[in-house]
Amino acid sequence: MKRTNIAIGGLSLVIVAGVAYWEFGRLTSPGGLHPTHARIVELKGSKGCAVCHGDETRSMADACVECHGEIRGQIDHGSGFHGAMDSRVAPDSCQVCHLEHSGGVIELVSLETFRAAGVADRGSYDHAEIPGFGLEGRHESLSCRSCHAHAESLILLEGQSRYLGLSQACESCHEDSHGGAYGQDCASCHGQSEAFDTAAAFAHTDSFPLIDSHAGLSCKACHEDGTASAISHLMDAPPSGSVRGCVDCHGSPHNEAFLVGIGAGERLDARSTCAVCHRVEHADFLFPDATMTREQHGATGFVLDPPHDTQQCEDCHESIGARGRIADASVVRSSFEAFFPGRSADACRSCHEDPHAGQFDTADRIASCLDCHDPLHFEPSRFDAAMHERTGFALADGHAGVACADCHHEVAGVVRFAGTATDCASCHSDPHGGQFVSADGGLRLCTDCHGTRRFDATRFTLDDHQRTAFPLTGSHQAVACRSCHGADEAGVHRFVGVSHECASCHEDVHNGSFDRPGLPVVVNGVRGCARCHGTGSFSDVLWAGDMHERWTGYALVGAHAGASCVDCHGAARGVNAVDRFARTSGDCVSCHEDVHAGQFAVGIVNDCARCHTERRGFEQTTFDHQRDSRFALDEQHIGLDCAACHRPVRTGDGRAVTRYRPMGMACGDCHGFVGNER
Question: 118, 116, 86, 108: which is closest to 163 by C-alpha?
């Protein structure tokens, strides 16, 4: 019980002492703190005085800026409101402007505070006095509270600021609709005077003024997000100074070669050549009266040389004047190509109908009219003999002067050139009447025998004829073709099937006498006339002596063996060969003169062979006086010469003929005796 009383007494003493101490500290303050400071635990009690009023080691001003560090920064760097105050207000005299210990009756930052700092009217304070904090445009009419939410607040909670903590960066007050993609300097485009959406302060580059058809466009119309021209990209990598060309934004239906050609003539970059023909002041890019010069047209690859130099645009580009604005960019190219199909000057068929109906087109190439025709005129063509030769059919000799129409005829309204047959029969009738049909049923080539200079000058040579079934030998080699190959009733000269028999061309002067039954048909492997005659000359008979006996039964022996044919068969012209050969008599007197004047004829037959032979001379007889006469020679007569008894007598025609018979056998017949001689 005693201990409890002691404890209670001690506790009471402590409480009383604490209250006394608190009252002592409270009663020593000149007044209550402003509610903003009063909420700070460190400022309560007697020790709190030193936090604000300093001590022997630091001044009151130093104590203030220990809590208000941002103010120290402004003072030290001469920035902000405190750094720019009138020099009459010492930077370490916080209490001059900010009064404390009024219990909140006097605001820490009041109108008097501003007046003390040299600002007569807080509402009209010129922010420009603070470097980098000038207010422009619509910001000038704003109240302090519009930006400084706690400008007029009586109490600031911990962490809140009345005027500090803000910057001139737009996003510190405004939401950045670009999400930071366009940088922090919003005012450079939007300014501070006009509505944000107008971007009134933005000035496009002088090299690309936004005028005429470019005026009024939204930024993204040209600077689309995600492209190299996006504003975000340009903010990170400003343009190098090159100006975007039309084609950087607008799809160009023109090919690169055309743009380069236009640029070369105007000394422009190819990307910036649109303005040569098109004007930005036209809302409709394809204004109907847009024109181009001949030189500009040449950049298309189609130079307007004659005969195209006199044409109007509409002659080649139908409905060109009806062009209008193309709303859908996806059809720009197709719409452009409908008006300007990009024809080549050499592509005649893009404007002109092909009169040849595609004859000269191949799987690999579409034929060009200029291959054969002059660009100034379609007719006459410049397809000459040299070009024709490249077709595989040279226009030489007789073909050189032939008109095209003579060989190339119209079929179904189109003159046919391609596929024209080159065989002679396709243009020329066959003068041989089909004699030279080949094994496959077609005609043989005329050029095998004929040239192209003239048909009748055949080049069928002797060597060619030698390869036929009738080689030409002897005199046949000099004979004209027509001599053997005559014309039939139809006027066709026959070459095929012509008989090789001599009689088919030559008259048989022997009238078949050598073809009688029993006579040899083949002699030494040859027939017909060749059995006896060669082709060098008909008169050159190939007979040998033994052949005479085979043909006639009359052997040529003795002197006859060396006799010529004409010795027996004559050579007088006009004499029928039949009479000369077939009707030649075998009698000696048919060839030889009867020196006996018929003395030895028996009837009508005068057989010389009874006394003479062919193997001996005529003078060497086989006559035996003892055997063959009626007057055998006795010893007186046998030694006499024939002429001693047989003397010449005159015949009726005056010839002197030795008389052999008839003769008398009496002595007186020779010796002149008359009487009975014995």
Answer: 108
Cβ–Cβ < 8 Å for 510, 578: yes
Residue 64 is encoded by which pair of tokens?
């203030």
| DSSP string across 18-57 | HHHHHHHHHHHSSSPPPHHHHT-GGGSSTHHHHHHH-BTT
Please choose, from the candidates 495, 490, 505, 421, the residue with its C-alpha nearest in 3D space to the C-alpha of residue 460: 495
From CA 15, how far away is CA 567, in angstroms rounded?
Answer: 201
Q: Which two tokens stand for residue 596?
A: 């006996």
How far apart are alpha carbons 66 and 73 in whole angstroms? 11
Whether 324 and 284 have beta carbons less than 8 Å apart is answered as yes
Both tokens assigned to 319:
């409905």
Query: Are 266 and 273 contacting, i.e. CB atoms less than 8 angstroms apart?
Result: yes
Contact present, 71 and 83 (Cβ < 8 Å)? no
- Tens-place pLDDT, residues 183-218: 788 888 888 888 888 788 888 888 788 887 788 888
Residue with tokens 């402003």: 34
How many CB atoms lie under 10 A from the CB of residue 610? 12
Which residues 6+ apart lie within 8 Å of 486 measured at CB?
Answer: 493, 494
- Tokens read off for 408: 């190339």
**Cis ω for the linkage preceding 131 (within 30 of 0):** no
Asked if residue 108 lies in contact with residue 36, where contact means CB atoms within 8 angstroms, the answer is: yes
Nearest-CA neighbor of 569 among 549, 584, 553, 559?
Answer: 584
Alpha carbon distance 127, 163 (integer Å) = 12
In this predicted structure, what is the pLDDT of residue 27? 47
Q: Rounded to 10 degrees, what is the CA torsion of 523, 525, 531, 534?
A: -150
SS3 (DSSP) at 431: coil
Could you tell me the pTM of the whole model?
Answer: 0.44
Pairing of strands 410-411, 648-650: unpaired
First to last CA, the chain: 257
Query: Angle of helix 69-77 relative to helix 60-67, nearest 10 degrees?
Result: 110
* Residue 633 CB contacts under 8 Å (≥ 6 apart), including other chains: 625, 626, 640
What count of residues does the chain have? 678
To which residue do tokens 């047209």 refer?
Answer: 297
List, in order, residues 6 or more apart from 475 with CB less than 8 Å away: 535, 536, 537
Give the number of other CB atoms < 10 A from CB of residue 117.
Answer: 19
pLDDT tens-digit series, residues 547-585: 888 888 888 888 888 888 788 877 655 556 667 777 777
Q: Which residues contact 16 (CB under 8 A, 6 or more apart)?
A: none
